[in-house]
Structure prediction request, 65 residues.
Amino acid sequence: MSRKIFDYTKSVLERVSFDTTLFCKELEKALRMLLPYEIEQLTAWLMNFTKEKPELRKCLRIINE
Prediction:
């Protein structure tokens, strides 16, 4: 079940990546739902995903809070 949530989270983040504010909000929601090891996986995925979208990099600070 939790793998489905992780995959769904990635899908949502990809779909809202056109809007930085919305992306940050969805990332905050994801961090409340995911398990600690999934957050680590999501962080790795985000680092790769945001390489080509530098405007989204500022949302990564949410993970460190």
Summary: The chain has a mean pLDDT of 92. The two ends are 26 Å apart (CA to CA).
